[in-house]
Amino acid sequence: MNIATEVNKEVLGQIAAESIAKIDPKSTNGKRWINAIAKATAEIETNPFMTYELESHSLLMMSETSNQTYTANGTCQCKAFANGFPCRHRAAARLITIYIERTR
Ligand SMILES: [Zn+2]
Q1: Are the CB atoms for 61 and 13 separated by under 8 Å?
Q2: In sequence order, what are the residues at sequence separation of 6 or more whose Cβ sits closer than 8 angstroms to the Cβ of residue 93?
Q3: How many whole angstroms from 31 Cα to the centroid of ligand 1?
Q4: Residue 33 alpha carbon to ligand 1 centre in Å
Q5: Per-residue model confidence as pLDDT tens digits over 47-96
Q6: 3-state class of 75 per DSSP?
Q7: pLDDT score, position 1
Q8: 43 pLDDT more than 80
């Protein structure tokens, strides 16, 4: 499915808010995850180069800033992931997984 054109922003915002509320900002990487979720939410709404594979629960996204393509479903190919940090790709994959479970 193509995400940017099909996603209901209200539902997505709700899921993002719930996900952020569950994170303790004082926990390891807590603030980074909160940031990643916020960035992911904005990107899901605007990045037209994002598709979701239902079978593998993985998100394919092309980054407009780095011209890289990332696939995320718990692992990722970006620098942040390589350094052991949260990244917006994984946050986006998670948000969309929840979104699809909730709206289908
Ligand atoms: Zn990543």
Answers
A1: no
A2: 57, 58, 59, 72, 73, 74
A3: 16
A4: 12
A5: 888 888 888 888 888 877 777 788 888 899 999 999 999 999 999 999 99
A6: coil
A7: 63
A8: yes
Q: Six-digit token pair at 97?
A: 């997984």
Ligand 1 centroid to 77 CA: how many Å? 6
pTM: 0.88
Q: Please, are residues 99 and 12 in contact by the beta-carbon 8 Å criterion?
A: yes
Residues in the chain: 104
CB 10 within 8 A of CB 102: no
Q: Give the C-alpha separation, 24 to 64, whole Å.
A: 30
Sign of CA pseudo-dihedral 33, 39, 13, 69: negative
